[in-house]
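In response to reviewer comment 3 from the previous cycle, which asked for concrete evidence that the modeling workflow produces usable outputs, we include below a single protein chain processed end to end. The sequence was submitted unchanged, and the resulting structure tokens are shown without manual editing.
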Amino acid sequence: MSAKSFSPKPTLLLADDHAIVIEGLRKLLQPEFELVGAVGDGWALLEAAEKLRPDVIVVDVSMPLLNGIDAIRRLKRAGSPSKVVILSMHMDAEIATEAFRAGASGYVLKHSATEALSNAIWEALAGRRFVSPRIAQSVTSNLMQSSHCDEGFSVRLTQREREVLQLVAEGRTIRGIAEILQIAIRTVVFHKSNIMDKVGARTTADLTQHAIKSGLISLQLAVSYDVPRETGIRS
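The workflow returned the following structure tokens.
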């Protein structure tokens, strides 16, 4: 589809916690789209999306404070009209599937952004889905399954529990988590205890490993609890 089909240019909001990625995306996408903003964490994304109301949001999965998938869920629940395209290093089909179930219109692997991201954005604007070819078959198969009773993180944990888990993995204190989420300290303790029971974790290190494996947080963002390197992002 040609950019000439749209006039003026579609507006774009970028969300990634790496400045070098944001700059690269600016250079890649400016010829076809109007970039109206760039943010570095999930909560800032929600605020910017409400204020700027972009046509499309390009967001990473592993965002600080609030991951990209849960940010999408909040956007959709709030009635945001923006299309969302995930740009991620995660090649895990289950994570991509969760992104589509949350309401994403596209899932592009970062290594193929130069070739595929623009196309994914235009597909989203046209009301279609786009997924990187390397994981497309697995994602399509997952989405076609009628039963969602798998053991994925989004099924087993509530949204609030995922938010608490991510912040725990980032090394936030119980009080700090309570302030960020604007809930009582005892509520944070309650959620953390429930999470540990649900995922079979005994320590904070176990919770951090689960958050990394589930795509809630990147290994770079996770606080160090002697988390083994092999528990990081699959490639």
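Residues 153-231 form a domain with the Arc Repressor Mutant, subunit A fold (CATH 1.10.10.10). We consider this sufficient to address the reviewer's concern, and the full set will be provided in the supplementary archive.
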